[in-house]
Amino acid sequence: MNKTALITGAxxxxxxxxxxxxxxxxxxVLATMRDPNRRENLESAxxxxxxxxxxxxxxxxxxxxxxxxQTTALIASRAQPLHALINNAGFAVPGFAEEVSxxxxxxxxxxxxxxxxxxxxxxxxxxxxxxxxxxxxxxSISGRTGFPGVSSYVASKFALEGWTETLRYEMAPLGxxxxxxxxxxFATDIWTRNAKLSAAxxxxxxxxxxRLARWQARVQASAKARANPQQVADLIARILETPAPKLRYxxxxxxxxxxxxxxxxxxxxxxRLLIKLSGLSD
Length: 282
Ligand SMILES: NC(=O)c1ccc[n+]([C@@H]2O[C@H](COP(=O)([O-])OP(=O)(O)OC[C@H]3O[C@@H](n4cnc5c(N)ncnc54)[C@H](OP(=O)(O)O)[C@@H]3O)[C@@H](O)[C@H]2O)c1
Prior knowledge:
The protein is an alpha/beta fold and 282 residues long. It has a single domain, classed as 3-Layer(aba) Sandwich (Rossmann fold). 46% of the residues lie in helices and 13% in strands. The protein has helices at residues 13-24, 40-48, 65-76, 102-130, 151-171, 209-221, 230-240, 253-264, 267-277; strands spanning 4-7, 28-33, 55-59, 84-87, 133-138, 176-183, 248-251. Strands 3-2-1-4-5-6-7 form a 7-stranded parallel sheet, with helices on both faces. α1 (13-24) packs parallel to α2, α1 (13-24) crosses α7 and α4 (102-130) packs parallel to α5 (151-171). The longest helix is centred in the middle third of the chain and has 29 residues, at 102-130. The protein is globular. The mean pLDDT is 96. The structure holds NADP nicotinamide-adenine-dinucleotide phosphate (NAP). The site of NADP nicotinamide-adenine-dinucleotide phosphate (NAP) has 29 residues, from α1 and α4. Residues 8-9, 11-15, 33-35, 38, 61-63, 88-91, 111, 115, 138, 140, 183, 185-186, 188-190, 194 line the site of NADP nicotinamide-adenine-dinucleotide phosphate.
């Protein structure tokens, strides 16, 4: 029997690639996306790999409680157990912390934190009944260390990390595994189509306008260095196939370097380096 995985945000990036990768490795994939009109990329990738019969597409906006309930009901109605839940859906709100509005901050948390935690809570009773299951949270290196310009994203991922680490301790005695993936910068839609710039970023009167422009230029200049997202899909597949998975998996040279620097450099030096690299000094 094929193992079944449910993944969120499967219309692009890591979610799409992970759906294909898992199906290639013999999994049955419930690939969910908030907008089914965006199914074409996944469908054509599945067709090209002759994997259509292993990938089902379902609608799921993780901020929609009714759609979460429908997804839970769908899983409960099946004869097959659910082996894995991959909470992948997410986006970023670039902008300086001083100026990101309360509404923008809440919007960020609604998807990256409350969406992932609500879906996990809804699925856990199924995993309890089965007495097995594996929850994988796609966090970020931004869930381990702060970065200028993405405070709301960093905050949502720090919150997700804290919740998930605790969940792991609570679920381990029940046979349910919990892991966190922490990618560095990979070439997906997150910093292009899916970046929801804070309103202040297009305000010429912002007191941070010049620094924001320099920061944005640095981010754009680094775009070429973004890594191949297939690495993350392969890692998620390996984690799901590991008998005793770890809590955290860092992936990407930039992510490893940032963590190493943060751990070995004195805080003041790390800070100065980050500020300089981000173009923030006046
Ligand atoms: N790429 C990176 O450098 C990087 C680094 C660290 C962590 N991550 C994390 O990786 C995850 C996947 O992002 P990605 O890089 O693959 O970017 P992506 O290509 O933009 O994919 C994000 C996916 O999330 C979906 N999504 C957004 N809001 C949603 C919602 N409310 N409900 C359901 N789906 C929603 C998007 O749907 P639509 O197609 O409808 O927009 C899209 O399918 C995110 O959690 C992100 O924080 C990415």
